[in-house]
Amino acid sequence: MPKFFVTTAIDYANGEPHLGHAFEKIGADAIARYHRLRGDDVWLLIGMDEHGQKVAQTAAERGLSPEELTDRIAASFQAMWQRLAISYDQFIRTSTAEHRAGVRELLLRIFEHNLDDFYERSYQGWYCVGCEAFKQDAEIVDGKCVLHPTRTLEWVEERNWFFRLSRYRDFLLEHIEAHPEFIEPVTRRNEIVSLLRQGLEDISASRSRFSWGVPFPKPTSDGEQQTTYVWFDALPNYYTASRFPGSRATWPAQLHIIGKDITRFHCVIWPAMLEAAKLPLPERVFAHGFVNLGGERFSKSAGVRLDLGEAVDRFGPDAFRYFLLREVPFDADGNFSWERFEERYIADLANAFGNLASRTIAMLEKYCGGVVPAFDPVSLAAAASWVAPEEVRYAEAMGGQLLHEALAAAWRIVARANEYVDRQAPWKLAKAPEQRPELEITLAALAYTLARVALLVWPFMPSKAEQLWEQLGAPGTIGGSVQAGTDLLARPVNPSAWHVTKGAPLFPRPQAPVA
RNA sequence: GGCAGGGUAGCUCAGCUGGUUAGAGCACGGCACUCAUAAUGCCGGGGUCGCGGGUUCGAGUCCCGCCCCUGCUACCA
After folding, report:
1. Which nucleotides of chain B have an atom under 7 angstroms from any protein CB?
2. What pTM, to 2 d.p., does this model score?
3. Mind giving me the DSSP string for A314-331?
4. SS3 helix, strand, coil % of chain A, rounded to 5?
5. What is the DSSP letter of A20?
6. Which nucleotide is nearest to A234 (CA to C1')?
7. Distance in angstroms, CA of A414 to C1' of B43?
8. How confident is the model at residue A298 (pLDDT cuts 50, 70, 90)?
9. Strand (E) or helix (H) holding A23
10. pLDDT score at A133
């Protein structure tokens, strides 16, 4: 059975979880659950990046130790992930002894394999106060930062350990060319390729200004003990995860799910580090887009924040997950708005999907005593001819992390099934005894359709999928049937003789506003 | 400033190498039906295809110019 080790970016422990964090975790969770459904041996890793100057500063401002601050923030993130049903297998924190030891080992491994890759250098460059960053020549026009042309650039120097990133340019270009799936979507790959063609500068690997981090394994020549710089601390979490007791993470990862803003770190610096340490590269890096708010760019400082808890409470965690992954293309940006959320909840969930379940189960109870008529799976699949082609599209979309397209395919099944109900008009068939066989195959085909849709939707709305599964009288639970080595989507479904039960509506309509 | 990708119905988007009356979903209007969460199905209104030129028998689709948006342009993560 294939191993599927999937990771998300570790979130910086400097604030509360917000919509952007949630989007990524929900997407990664849907991908992980889909692979579980497929019988892969899945390990979903998420976590927190807890070191760095900002964390230390924030802690100090609040009169806390960095450990106390990060404990609180980590707890807050974990609580949110639990609420959103993120089925992570491991939550890594970079301030733990295991991770620190792993970083040290990885760095020493680079020293060992490529002694020359780390070297001391006095870094100097034009520093833009507006960007809070050193600027490269390409970003300087007429002696000014292109992003802050009114500011004056400062010349700054610091002596640090440096990593010879420049040496890996050709290696990376060749790797990307040989493995086109390494960076997705294509636009992100193109950006990285064009960056590589411009050439790479070496990067600093240590800092002297702060100490809340992993000590760099070797002191500088003047004896100073520096702190490992963020990339050489945070990125290796994917690799150090396996060192924790009980972890079944095994390097290399099959997939890194990240935001498009950190593509470069994951597609250039991280693979270069791994190559320097003579370790295998991750198989794929997928950079998702961002969720904007009310048409405005989502930003921590802009004040256009959305209360995550309120959004989750509005229609429940499953509907929230569905909405985000259906509305925002996973490979591009999208927008969150309450209006849209409500529209999709009512149209897609309550009316189309929830009501299809209600009417089907109600008719099975009314016309068949609540028992699905007996047919073999082949006949059912043939009768429900709209299912198979969309399942193919669903699987193709999931294979490319195009979650919104997978959901669209599932909803085309729902739409076809609703049309089918009206075309067949079971309430008319039920009045004519000679139409009994037609009535039975119709309702059985609908039960079959719902069971298949429950499976397809499970990665996105695990608890609603289970609820439907139960109402259909299907055996066990979907989650409980998941087993490494067993492909639940490939296994035929036969609802014959299931005892359906009409329970509460899957997605109750919100109370109509008083006119 | 440079490079890349976009600007098509109220909203989100599809429109491959140029070819009959420009499509889908949602929203909106009408009709049908009654199994269902007043849900569903059918029909319909609605678009100067960013702007201006050009090539062509014919351009949303090609060329030139312009406007606007987004991303990247290496040390906040």
Report:
1. 1, 3-5, 11-13, 26-27, 33-42, 70-77
2. 0.92
3. HH-HHHHHHHHHHHS-TT
4. 50, 15, 35
5. H
6. B77
7. 21
8. low
9. helix A19-37
10. 62
Instruction: Say what the ipTM of the complex is.
Output: 0.90
How long is chain A? 515
A302 CB less than 7 Å from any atom of strand B:
no
Is residue A121's beta carbon less than 7 angstroms from any atom in nucleic acid strand B? no
- In the 171-200 segment of chain A, residues within 7 Å (Cβ) of strand B are 187, 190-191, 194-195, 198-200
- CA dist A37 and A30 (Å) reads 10
A411, closest nucleotide (Cα–C1'): B25
Check if residue A415 sits with its Cβ under 7 angstroms from strand B: yes
CA distance A364 to A344: 27
**Among positive and negative, which fits the CA dihedral A140, A141, A143, A148?**
negative
At A257 the three-state DSSP class reads strand
Give the CA A365 to C1' B1 distance in Å: 70
Give DSSP secondary structure letters for A346-376. Answer: IIIIIIIIIHHHHHHHHHHHHHHTTBPPP--
Q: What is the pLDDT of residues A305-320, one digit of tens each?
A: 678 888 899 999 999 9
